Amino acid sequence: MKEKTAVYGASVEGYAVALSIMKSGNEVSILDERIKTSFTLMENAPTSIRQLVGEDSLYPIRPISSVLQSSSQVILAPRLRFSEEGRAEWLQRLKEVGQNLGEQAMLVNLVPLSAGGNKEALAIIEEQSGLKPGKDFRYVYVPVGSSHVAGYLGESQPPRWFDDIFGELRWTRTIEESELEYIRWALADYIPKALAISFYKEGSTLLLDKNKLFLDDMAQGLYDMHLFSDTLPHGDTLHHFATGALKAVSNYTHTLGSYLRNYARERGLKAIRSRILLVWGHEGSEMKGERARLQGVILNSLREVFGDVDSWNPAEQPEEKKRPPNLDRYQMIVPCSQADLKTCQAFTRSNSEQAIITASVPVSVL
User: Fold this and answer.
1) Of 138, 247, 251, 347, whose CA is between 20 and 30 Å from 234?
2) Segments in the chain forming alpha helices (H)
């Protein structure tokens, strides 16, 4: 009989894990935490989570509670929002899982947490389920990202297949240690980007890196910086690192806006009559939602200055429609990643006055 796995969260990262586990022979269900239904994967499962939960999905649907109760493995991979409402959602997700977690099940948490976050999560799970972590159910903390750090709470050894699915993991001695290791990794990964952004002011910089740092690069890790800024003790050095990184990104959004405004002015264009297209290819169902969040900040900032600002996401378009509608009406096209730049350069443009201006450090005009 096949072992049953429930992936709680219709996220890109959760779906990737689900496909990998299904290949090992398990029966796998994706639980959409927002519409409270589940989809049991079949052999011909689509490669994209968007195709699975789309309007034309023909996959078997079951209530979330019954799937959780019958699963020996539960993967926590919900879509997250960093706000008071987002925190309330996360706590509610934990309660729902706890109420339906089976005895001797293994709970795998992919959600990045700050210091003490796992203790809080396990207390909620225990309160709702009546099960003791490490005794009545096994618990694995594998925060999504590239840290490869993992914590385990259980009487037996961690399953060997974890390395096959998550890459070669570095197991810590305790869950608390894995939290600190993740914080260290996340800050060490993001601070160099914050430094590069901080030296770039008013559209110029004296310190140029070999590779451009795009808005897409800045977005990756932004959720963690918000998390640490909100949860680490004020006055702590690590808290200063996180808040400084957020300040650097905030300053860059103003710098980009100033650059575009100056470019328009130099060409005799009034900002209120300027038309800008932001091009950013990203999946809308990412766990951390970092790209969507930063895109919203950029769009709001630009719309305060310019008369017409639109966005276009090539990742959500079929191959035959890899071109934004009414392209020639825009004076400035702003790609937000290296891949988006290549997409924009492939456009056939009939408007000779149209410019491609990269959302990067440094900004380039093509």
Assistant:
1) 251
2) 12-23, 49-52, 64-69, 84-100, 117-129, 161-166, 175-198, 215-219, 222-231, 237-266, 290-303, 338-345
Neighbouring C-beta atoms of residue 337, cutoff 10 Å: 22
Residue that terminates a domain, selected from 125, 146, 171: 171
Residues 338 and 300 both lie in one domain: yes
Contact 72, 104 (CB under 8 A): yes
Backbone angles phi, psi at 244, to 5 degrees: -65, -40
In the chain, the number of structural domains is: 2
Find where tokens 């999905």 sit: 57
Residue 107 and residue 215 in one domain: no
pLDDT in tens, 30-48: 999 988 888 888 888 887 8
Between CA 124 and CA 109 the distance in angstroms is: 14
Same domain membership, residue 198 and residue 127: no
The pLDDT tens digits of the residues spanning 250-301 come to: 999 999 999 999 999 999 999 999 999 999 999 889 999 999 999 999 999 9
Whether 121 contacts 176, CB under 8 Å:
no
- Of 224, 105, 97, 94, the closest CA to residue 153 belongs to 105
